[in-house]
Design goal:
- By secondary structure, the protein is of the alpha+beta class.
- It is 36% helix and 28% strand.
- It contains 13 helices and 20 strands.
- An 8-stranded mixed beta sheet has the order 6-5-14-15-16-13-17-20. It has a 6-stranded mixed beta sheet with strand order 8-2-1-12-19-18, covered by helices on one side. Strands 3-7-4 form a 3-stranded antiparallel beta sheet.
- Strand 1 (5-8), helix 1 (12-23) and strand 2 (28-31) form a beta-alpha-beta unit.
- Helix 1 (12-23) packs parallel to helix 9 (298-319).
- The two termini are 34 Å apart.
- Bound molecules: adenosine-5-diphosphoribose (APR) and P-hydroxybenzoic acid.
- P-hydroxybenzoic acid is lined by residues 45-47, 199, 210, 212, 220, 293-296.
């Protein structure tokens, strides 16, 4: 097989890039290790920045999001029994976010790719990248038991944190930065109305909690748990009881509980790979960086990578100008590190750290009190939460 851009990974990053390129007349093939159902079974955050909302519209995938997504103008932070609202709109010069699940974004992208006859090869195995430093790289894999090969101009590694693309960059040419947090998030999805019309990020001596939503009849809640916990250690009753303890009484009194339809634990990690380009391989999204979910920057940061690479590849193919692809790694990484900083800061502000001493606890308290006594601090939070410019 032959194409212009071979994209490894059919998650939101790979699908969005392939859809945007297609609309510019640039050919791509997506190779994905899993089935479509498996990809759509993953539950991830659901808060979209303006930049991603605009990209989805540009990709022709914004119709359902605009119809079913909810524009949010603020969110709450609770601290033991107190609760304060962060007015995103007032503090960011009119910025808002769109609450629309990542699963739905991915479904819309699959539907759009199918409608345009986009080529997505599912259930492929043993993907390997070759000749990345040459003008004609190629990708090999197994499909239905047969060896396959795709020749292309560029390879895009959109295959997530555990993919094959990043390790294809020889070690001397990449540097990895990592921070692993000493806790995870236990998440529950339930067919219940959300407890609050806007998200609540909760801090409490017992640990962090988050009240989020997918729609007016589907809620997503999280609690911070030790890394040693397993989802099966938590009955639905135990989860709801613990969540209620971490929320102010004014909120927990209104919480409607019900059976969980999904329950999982995600560890928290910050990770960046420098560089995001090696020869004619470009890394995008989780393949190059991971943020802890506090602040919902994962998908949004993947989207800014896609934006830079999409414009770089379009300029290369349509105008013969390679400046955009040459600047890709530098531009993408500059924004990635800012999203890393914000996610790390919000994680530090809101969680209980098992190893922290009395001084650290006072610092967290002071950070919190400063935030709600300073318009400048709230403006900084709001500016980052709605998304820094591309
Ligand atoms: N060969 C082919 N496909 C692969 C391989 C491989 N060796 N390894 C992984 N994949 C596929 C995975 O099955 C997955 O579908 O690559 C895809 C990567 O998708 P994601 O992990 O979702 O990463 P990405 O598309 O960058 O999405 C950005 O934003 O909210 C965050 O972490 C969240 O997934 C989210 C991310
Ligand atoms: C979610 O809805 O799953 C969600 C929302 C906000 C976050 C993280 C996750 O910061």
């Amino acid at each position: 097989m032959k194409t212009q851009v071979c994209i490894i990974g059919g998650g939101p990053s790979g699908l969005l890039l392939s859809q945007l390129l297609h609309r510019k007349g640039i050919e791509s093939i997506v190779v994905e290790r899993q089935s479509c159902d498996h990809v759509l079974g993953r539950i991830r955050a659901g808060v979209l920045e303006r930049g991603l909302v605009d990209l989805l519209r540009e990709a022709g995938c914004g119709v359902r999001m605009d119809r079913e997504g909810e524009v949010h103008h603020g969110f709450y932070i609770s601290h033991n029994d107190a609760i304060e609202r962060v007015d995103l709109e007032a503090h960011s010069g009119g910025g808002t976010v769109m609450v629309y699940g990542q699963t739905e974004v991915t479904r819309d992208l699959y539907d759009a790719r199918a409608a345009m006859g986009g080529v997505i090869l599912h259930n492929v195995q043993d993907v390997a990248l070759h000749d990345l430093k040459s003008q004609s790289p190629h990708v090999t894999f197994q499909m239905d038991g047969e060896d396959q090969r795709i020749d292309c101009d560029f390879v895009v590694g959109a295959d997530g944190f555990h993919g094959v693309s990043r390790p294809s960059i020889p070690e001397p040419d990449r540097r990895e930065f990592e921070k692993v947090y000493p806790f995870g998030w236990l998440g529950v999805l339930s067919e219940t109305p959300p407890v609050s019309p806007e998200l609540i990020y909760g801090t409490h001596e017992r640990g962090f909690c988050l009240c989020s939503m997918r729609s007016q009849v589907l809620s997503r809640y999280y609690i911070q748990v030790p890394l040693s916990d397993k989802p099966e250690d938590w009955s639905d009753e135990a989860f709801w009881a613990e969540l209620k303890k971490r929320l102010p009484a004014s909120v927990s009194d209104k919480l409607v509980t019900g059976p969980s339809i999904e329950k999982s634990i995600a560890p928290l990690r910050s990770f960046v790979c420098e560089t995001m380009r090696y020869g004619n391989l470009f890394l995008v999204g989780d393949a190059a960086h991971i943020v802890p979910p506090t602040g919902a920057k994962g998908l949004n940061t993947a989207a800014s990578d896609v934006h830079y690479l999409y414009h770089g590849l379009s300029d290369h193919y349509l105008n013969g100008d390679s400046a955009g692809i040459d600047e890709y790694a530098e531009k993408a990484l500059a924004r990635v590190w800012k999203a890393e900083r914000f996610s790390w800061w919000m994680t530090k502000l809101l969680h209980s750290f098992p190893e922290s001493g009395a001084f650290d606890a006072r610092m967290q308290q002071a950070d919190f009190e400063y935030l709600f006594s300073s318009d400048a601090a709230q403006a900084s939070l709001a500016e980052n939460y709605v998304g820094l410019p591309y």
